[in-house]
Amino acid sequence: MSLKTLLMIKPDGVRRGLIGEVLRRVEQKGFRIAGMKMLQFDEARAGEFYQEHIGKPFYQTLVDFITSGPAVALAVEGDDEERLIPEVRKMMGATRYWEATPGTIRGDFAHHLTMNVVHGSDSPASAERELGIVFEPNEIL
């Protein structure tokens, strides 16, 4: 059985026309896209998605941003459970865009801490939770 993780192109990445570039990088890395959808987060879904940040000073900034426009969610699949999430996160680059290595998505395209093009699950438990918020079970093939 293969593991799946969430990789989401945030509203800034969608607005900037980076969907194809992110898809290209995922597929070139050898991962399979098992589900993909464009969605508009509402306040309730954003609150569920960012629940671990409730009460933190930046929480409302996250919610305001993710609800500001459409996002594209990808269920990314890989055969090596030890490799999938670390490799996807490495491909994304550091959250702090100024620390992201050139050649990573954030290193090449991000220019703001919150508006940093992509989000990716950080653990198998987060992947399961986040995929369940974004996708219906029949939307992941």
Give the tags:
4 strands, 4-stranded antiparallel β-sheet, 141 residues, Alpha-Beta Plaits
Describe the structure.
With 141 residues, this protein is an alpha+beta fold. The protein has a single domain, classed as Nucleoside diphosphate kinase-like domain (Alpha-Beta Plaits, 2-Layer Sandwich), CATH 3.30.70. 39% of the residues lie in helices and 18% in strands. It is built from seven helices and four strands; from the N terminus they run βααβααβααβα. The chain has helices at residues 11-15, 19-28, 43-49, 59-66, 84-92, 105-109, 124-134, and strands at residues 3-9, 32-39, 71-78, 118-120. A four-stranded antiparallel beta sheet has the order 2-3-1-4. The protein is globular and about 35 Å long. The model has no long low-confidence stretch (mean pLDDT 95).
